[in-house]
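Hi V.,

You were right to ask for the full record rather than a summary. Here it is.
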Amino acid sequence: MRKKVTRISSLLLTGVLSGGGLAGLAVSAAEPSSGAPVTSLPPPPIESVAQTRNSPPVPPLPNPLPTPRIPAREGIMGIMPEPDDDLGVGHLRPKDLSFLEATDPASSPLLGAGWLQSAAIPIYIEPDGSHWGWIINGWLVPNGQSAIALGQDASFLMVQTYPDLLSFPVTQIREDGWFQFQYTSAGQAWAHIDHLDLGRMDLAVELWESHLIDTDRVTFRRHGLSQSLYNTPDGTQASILGLVGPNSFIQPLAFEGDWMRVQVTQPAEGCATLPGAVTLEGWMRWRSDAQQPMIWFEPQGCEAVEEAAGEAVEEAVEEAAGETAGEAAVNSN
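Predicted structure:
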């Protein structure tokens, strides 16, 4: 009988950055943080983190080490974020994404959350605080307690950031290399960027702007939202070019702080531009004063969306043809 999926209690604990330390440790063998709340300041520059960090020692591995497993997909929450979800400043993902290029998706066990079976990262209650446990080989292992099977014994939270990849939202990054990430709807953990290469797969923290620049289209997270389009990234009334409405095709071109340079085509319906559409380039806010992304993206991309739409049209045509043929056969009798 399938085990009941339960949420991990929040009482347990609350650019691309990658580590540089020991490797290959995660090989198979047999009250939230009381610190300061999530800051509303932007994340520090990548070079600042690299220069000011002080690497903490690697804590002991769990003993016994749990056998690698793929987390159950049905136990993962938040895959497509809601408008009010805290997406933080970036995400924790595998450093090398070459496995996403597999011609046959089923041939790679690392897709989705499968990469967690090869990951190992020690987690802490707070920066420079007590080591709490490990996320390792697809398990959550609190110190001195039994291993918890992610997605089976307990639900956890990830977001879809590529067509075939799920990752953890990173809520804040400090200049000393400590970062906080969300792993359940109510649970956050701290980790250090120098501990991102302790498993059989190296990990990385990627800022949202570094990820969004590679997407072909972004949309407003809140339905019906509109934003002013400016000639310069300053928000002055004199530099307004127009309004970016919800019926727009928005392509990111560059990021500068809370601002994003875009190419906007409107009106549009999803990935398709409509007759009479006009294209403009300019700057718009992509991040709120609370440092939350106001935009998001379709992980599958426009190509996949258009392909799905084409398949839906073909199915509708075939269904209509079948109904017509059936009616003709009835009439002939």
